[in-house]
Design brief:
Elements (H helix, E strand, L loop, with lengths): L8 E5 L5 H8 L2 H4 L10 H10 L4 H4 L2 E7 L5 E11 L4 E8 L8 H15 L5 E7 L3 H9 L3 E12 L2 E11 L1
Parallel strand pairs: 4-5
Antiparallel strand pairs: 1-2, 2-3, 3-4, 5-7, 6-7
Helix pairs in contact: 1-3
Amino acid sequence: MKLLENDIIRLRALEPEDLDDLYRWENDAALWRHGSTLAPYSRFVLRDYLQHSSPDLFQTRQLRLMITEKKTGTAAGTLDLYDFEPVHLRAGVGILLDENYRNRGFGLQALQLTAEYARRILLLKQLYAHIPQSNPASYNLFKKSGYEEAGRLKAWVKTAQGFVDAYLMQRIL
């Protein structure tokens, strides 16, 4: 079995051809409330990112992978490992799914493949995610993927309606 793929999806490195998908997702203001983006990205900035991003997790402390539908090769979303901590053997996980691929199992499969990769190749002890209380779909996805609620961060995320708590979700590998 290949680690970063199954019969349905493949997790792969970013390619220059991903520019249009990244541009669309990064500039979707409706998604900004789930992350820390507050302004649009230009094609120039994203093209530069694609040209200069390094897949070396130990150097950059982050790794972005494209989630693709294996049958068609179509990009379904992205998965990020961030704040990689080689001493404590942990990393944060973030996931974005294109609206056409939500509620179809792609997110769950991507999280499961990532956990196996993190455990067997990166030799990590744990993965974690901060999930705003205002994003129950993400909370349910991580819960279904084997993450447990490890705590609640009070007034952690600023929204247009005020601050909301965030769940700290953790998966011990």
